[in-house]
């Protein structure tokens, strides 16, 4: 059955990979993000995969923007079957050194906009008899890490919000609410983050791909579950945080500085917290090797070797 799927944050990382995954299935897509230029690129990618697509430039933190997005989806396709909310921003720095306006906008984007999207989606689902809401959480909604206070606070809040909404939805059989919680993912969000720490952030190992998280999102649309964790060490970190909190707190700071930050210096900046950077938007962040390029390179290797040998023998 072809569904109508709304995806926020559709121009980069998990959101862009999710758009591609749903497009490959032939679902109708309503794509939303702040950058009209990049949004048009993703629209054409999804159309090339065979999907019918509507792109709606949207700032999820703007008053009434998500309601307008829903109205556009309903006007074009007659309703909404699945709403996937992936829009998020990050800021690195010690809590007291992150400007208040930046911290508040991270929370506004990552938590309050998620709540606004849920409100719009659930009102539509209750009016039409059902639908699936999929929120994008994080392992940092279950554990904590230094230098990311706004993001951590937002993901903990989102975890609580999702559980509350799931409990409220029990009286409506057609409404399903899932939260997909990845660990480290190869996306540009780390380079695009605001930074007041002096070193560019990175995803600590092990790192998974945006496509793997996207598959979990699509699977939740097919078989809704309360929560899906994506990441090999997520449960290990959660157990350590809960069972050995003293040990966890001793280790997490040094591990974050070693594995969660690069050695590359950076001057203080707001990143994409307030305005998008289309040049930095992509599915991959470059933290993992591009397996497609690697396979192509390996396939071309025999020909390159043969050419080199022939030249040598001349």
SSE blueprint and pairings:
Blueprint: E1 4-8, H1 13-24, E2 28-33, H2 36-48, E3 53-57, H3 65-77, E4 82-85, E5 91-92, H4 100-128, E6 131-136, H5 149-168, E7 175-182, E8 184-185, H6 189-192, E9 194-195, E10 199-201, E11 207-208, H7 210-222, E12 227-230, H8 234-243, H9 245-259, E13 261-265, H10 291-313
Helix pairs in contact: 1-2, 1-7, 4-5, 8-9
Brief rundown of the structure:
By secondary structure, this protein is of the alpha/beta class. 48% of the residues lie in helices and 17% in strands.
Shape: globular
CATH architecture heading: 3-Layer(aba) Sandwich
Could you report the average pLDDT, rounded to the nearest whole number? 93
Write the element-wise H/E pattern from the N-terminal end onward.
EHEHEHEEHEHEEHEEEHEHHEH
**Helical residue percent band:** 40-55%
Tell me the span between the first and last alpha carbons.
62 Å
Please describe the biggest sheet, giving its number of strands, its sense, and whether it closes into a barrel: 7 strands, parallel
- Total individual domains: 1
CATH topology: the name is: Rossmann fold
CATH superfamily: NAD(P)-binding Rossmann-like Domain
Radius of gyration: 21 Å
How would you classify the helix and strand content by structural class?
A: alpha/beta
Number of helices: 10
DSSP strand content: 15-25%
Overall number of strands: 13
């Amino acid at each position: 059955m072809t569904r109508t799927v709304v995806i926020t944050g559709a121009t980069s990382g998990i959101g862009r990979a999710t758009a591609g995954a749903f497009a490959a299935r032939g679902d109708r897509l309503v794509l939303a993000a702040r950058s009209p230029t990049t949004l048009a690129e993703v629209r054409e990618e999804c159309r090339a995969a065979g999907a019918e697509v509507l792109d709606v430039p949207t700032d999820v933190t703007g008053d009434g923007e998500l309601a307008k997005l829903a109205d556009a989806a309903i006007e074009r396709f007659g309703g909404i079957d699945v709403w996937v909310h992936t829009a998020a921003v990050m800021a690195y720095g010690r809590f007291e050194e992150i400007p208040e306006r930046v911290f508040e906008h991270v929370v506004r984007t990552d938590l309050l906009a998620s709540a606004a999207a849920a409100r719009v989606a659930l009102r539509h689902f209750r009016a039409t008899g059902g639908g699936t809401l999929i929120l994008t959480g994080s392992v940092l909604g279950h554990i904590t890490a230094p230098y990311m206070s706004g993001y951590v606070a937002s993901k903990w809040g989102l975890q609580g919000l999702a559980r509350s909404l799931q409990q409220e939805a029990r009286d409506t059989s057609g409404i399903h609410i899932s939260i997909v919680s990845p660990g480290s993912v190869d996306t540009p969000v780390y380079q695009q983050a605001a930074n007041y720490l002096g070193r560019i952030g990175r995803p600590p190992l092990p790192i998974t791909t945006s496509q793997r998280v996207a598959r979990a999102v699509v699977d939740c649309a097919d078989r809704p579950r309360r929560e899906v964790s994506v990441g090999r060490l997520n449960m290990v970190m959660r157990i350590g945080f809960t069972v050995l909190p003293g040990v966890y707190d001793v280790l997490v700071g040094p591990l974050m500085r070693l594995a969660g930050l690069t050695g590359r210096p950076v001057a203080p900046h707001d990143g994409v917290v307030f305005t998008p950077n289309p040049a930095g938007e992509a599915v991959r962040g470059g933290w993992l090797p591009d397996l497609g390029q690697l396979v192509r390179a390996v396939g071309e290797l025999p020909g390159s070797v043969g050419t080199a040998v022939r030249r040598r023998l001349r």
